Amino acid sequence: MQRRDRGLVQALGLPLAKRVKDSRVLVVGAGGIGCELLKNLVCSGFGSGYTQSSDAQEEAPVPTLLARTPGIVLIDLDTIDLSNLNRQFLFRKQHIKKPKAIVAKETASQFNPTVNIDAHHGDIFDSQYDVDFFAGFDIVFNALDNLKARRHVNRMCLAASVPLIESGTTGFNGQVQAIQKGNTECYDCNPKPVQKSFPICTIRSTPSQPIHCIVWAKSYLFPELFGTSEEDSTDVAVTDADNAEEVVKLREEAQALKKIRSLMGTSEFARAVFNKVFHDDVERLRSMSEMWQNRTPPEPLTFDALKADTDLVKTGQALSVQDQRVWTVEENLAVFCYSLDALCNRAQAGEHTMSFDKDDKDTLDFVSAAANLRSHIFGIPANSEWEIKQMAGNIIPAIATSNAMTASLSVMQSYKVLKSQAGKNEAMAKPTANNSLPTTTLTGKDDPPLGGSKMVFLNSRSTERVIATQSLGQPNPRCPVCSPTYARLLIPKESNPTISQLVSELESKGYQRDELSISVQDNVIYDVDLEENLERPLSELGVNLSSNDFITIMDDSDTPRVDLVLSTSPHTEQHGIPQIEPAELHLPPKPAPEPTSDDTNGAINDDDEPIEEVAPISQAKRTEPNGNHVQIDSAQPSDVAGEKRKRDLEEGIESTQKRAKPEAPAVEARVTADEGAILVDDE
User: Fold this and answer.
1) 482 — phi, psi (to 5°)?
2) Which positions bind Zn(2+) (predicted)?
C-alpha cells in the first residue's frame, strides 16, 4: 500500500478504499465545479487501481466491483477563456484557447500520477457517448452549466442504470443530489424554473428597463442584420391577441432592415442602419400619441448629429477595451460603427449566419452599443459593457469557494454510493436458502437508497448552518423521464428495419397492434391511424439507427402499462430483425393521471405586465406518411396516447380534421431572451 493511501484507508476502511481505487467514473464538464471535482477525485485515488501491500496475508479478502478498467473519463466541449482563470484552478494563462478537458487532465495528473485519466474534447450529445458507453461506469458526475445537457445526462444514466451525482452552484448557494433509476427521484421529477420572457410590445415599442433594450439588441436587431430574420425565427410568435395594425408595422420594419442588409460592405451601411432603427422607427413610435399619454415619449437620434469624429471605426476600437465604464452617447456611436464594421467583415468572409455569444467580443460590442443608444432614446440609464455582458449572457456570479465545497460534497456522496454497490454485490454473492436475493445490507439493516445518500444544500442565508441535508425523494410515478421502463433495441448492422418489424417484436412482448403508439423525439410515427407507416423504414421517420436515440412505446389499452423507452444500439449480426433486450419485460401499470387545474401562477414586472414563468408545455407531433408534422398539444410526452384516445371515431370526423392542431387560446406574443433555466457556473 502506498503511503498516500494510508489516510484514505484509515478514514474509509480497507474494503471501501479498495473499491474507490478500482472504480471507473465519468465526469461531464471541466469548468468551475469540474476542475475542483477532478482534483478531489484524483487526490482521493479514484481510478488509480488497487495495489496490495506486502502485508497481504493480514488483509481481509475484499469483493471487487464489476470487471471494469479503473479510471476517470473526463468530457468537455469548451476551450479555456481568460474569464475562467479566477476560479478554475487547473488552468493558467498559457492555457487560454486550449481544450479544457485536455489541460485539466495534464494538470490533475501531477497530483497523483497513478490515476488513469482519459480526457475527451467532445460534446456529450455525440453518438459515441451512447447508453452502452454510460453503462461502463460505476458513477457519473455532472458538472454542467446548462439545462439541456443536464437532462440528457440524467436520461442516459437512467437508461444505463448508472448512479448519477448531480451538482450545481448559483452564487454562494449550491446543491448535490444522488440519482438512481427506481430508487430516487431524477433530475426531471420536479419542474425547473425557466428563463423569464417579455411581451414583444414591451421589447419593440415601450421599453422601461435596461434589460428590455438589451433583449431588443440581442434578439431582434442583431439577428435581423447578421442572423436569422424575425420571419424565420422561433423566438417571436404573433397571435390573434396582438394588435393587427401594430403587427403590420413591425413586419414593415423587418422588411426595411432586410433591404438595408443588402448595403452591407458599403460606406453607407452604418449610417443606414443607425438612422433606420434610432430615428425612423422611433419617429413612428412618437406618432402614436395615445401610447405616450402617461409616458415620456422617446427622443430620436440621427447619425450626422452625433458624429463627432472622422474615423469612428478607429475610435470605437480604442473604446471597446474600456468595458468597465459607461460610454457616452457619442462613444456608443463609435463602438456601434466599429462592431458593425467587424461583423460585416466576418459576414463577407463567409460567416453568413451569426448568433450572439457573450464571449464573442464583436457581438458583445454591437449589443452593448445598440442597447445603450436605445436606452438613451427612451430615457433609461445606460450600463457598462461589463454589466451588459452579465445581463445578456444570463451570468450568475460563480464563487470559487462554492464550487470547491460543492465538489467535495459530491465526492462524499459518491463514497456512500460505492459502499451501497459493494454491499449489494457481496450480498448477491451469498443467496439465501431458497436462492432468493437478500433484502438487507451486510450490516443486517434495511438498505437505504444509495447507501444513505442525502440531498445536500449550501445555504448562504444561514451563518449557523451553511450545509443542510434532506432525504432523497422517491421517484415521481408520473415523471415522463424516469417513470418509463428502459430497454435496448438491438439493430443488426447494415439493416434498415421497418415499423412493421418493430411492431412484430413488440407483439411478441405482449403489446396489441391496435393498442400501441410509437414516437421518436415527441413525433408520433405509428398508431392505429397511421397504418400507412408500417412499411416505412425507421430511418425515414427520424430514428438514428447508429446509436444514442430513444423510441418511446405507449400502451393505449384500457389498463395501460408504463411507457417503454428503447435505446437504439447496433448489433453484431449482419442480418435479421430488431430485437428488444432484455427478452422479458416487466411493465407495471401506469398510475392514474392527476386532476388538472385551471389555476395559473404569474408574476408582474415593474410595468404591471405579465411575465411568463411557467415551463412550456411539451408538444408531440404526428409524422404523416408524406413526412409532414402535425402538432398535438400535450401536458407531457406520456399523455400523447391519452389525447389520441379522446378522438371520437364514431362521429365520422375526417382524419385530416382529427389530426389538426387544436386552436390555442389567444396569448400575447412574447420574445424570450435566452433558452434555459438557472445558469449554474458560467463556463
Assistant:
1) -105, -15
2) 186, 189, 479, 482
Catalytic residue among 201, 213, 337, 344: 201
- The answer to whether position 476 is within a domain reads no
Classify strands 24-28 and 71-76 as parallel, antiparallel or unpaired. parallel
Quote the CA–CA distance of 515 and 12 in Å, as a whole number: 53
Per-residue cell: 153: 445526462
* Partners of 119 in beta bridges: 74
Preceding omega of 582 cis (within 30 degrees of 0)? yes
Contact 81, 96 (CB under 8 A): yes
Name the binding residues.
29-34, 76, 84-87, 100, 145-150, 186, 189, 479, 482
- Domain shared by 628 and 597, yes or no: yes
| 404, part of any domain | yes
pLDDT digits (tens, 9 = 90+) for 50-108: 655 444 444 444 444 445 689 999 999 999 988 788 889 999 999 998 999 999 999 99
Catalytic, 213? Answer no
Per-residue pLDDT tens over the stretch 244-301 = 565 566 666 666 777 788 788 888 899 999 999 999 989 988 988 888 888 899 999 9
Structural domain boundaries, residue 555: 484-646
- Are 215 and 374 within 8 A, CB to CB? no
Same domain? For 465 and 488 the reply is no
- The number of helix segments (H) and strand segments (E) in the chain equals 21, 20
Residue from 261, 252, 198, 276 nearest 607 by CA: 198
- 333 in the same domain as 187: no
Query: Where on the phi/psi map is residue 423: left (φ > 0), alpha (ψ -120 to 50), or beta?
Result: alpha
Would strands 523-526 and 619-623 be described as parallel, antiparallel, or unpaired? parallel
3-state secondary structure of 115: coil
Rounded Cα gap, residues 646 and 659, in angstroms:
12
* C-alpha grid cell, residue 600: 395559473
Q: Looking at residue 32, which CATH number applies to its domain?
A: 3.40.50.720
Do 380 and 458 lie in one domain? The reply is no
User: Which residues sit in the known binding site for ATP?
Assistant: 29-34, 76, 84-87, 100, 145-150
Asked if residue 425 belongs to a domain, the reply is no
Q: How many domains does the chain have?
A: 3
Could you tell me if 418 and 356 are in contact, meaning their C-beta atoms sit under 8 angstroms apart? no
> What average pLDDT does this structure show over 532-541?
88
User: Is residue 363 located within the same domain as residue 255?
Assistant: yes
Same domain, yes or no: 572 and 632? yes
CATH number at residue 579: 3.10.290.20
CA distance 41 to 114: 12
Same domain, 178 and 266: no
Cα four-point dihedral sign 288, 293, 295, 301: positive
CATH code where residue 376 lies = 1.10.10.520
Annotated binding site for Zn(2+): 186, 189, 479, 482
| pLDDT given at position 332 | 95
pLDDT tens for 356-372 read 888 889 999 999 999 99
Residue 345 lies in a domain: yes
Sign of torsion, CA 315 320 321 327? positive
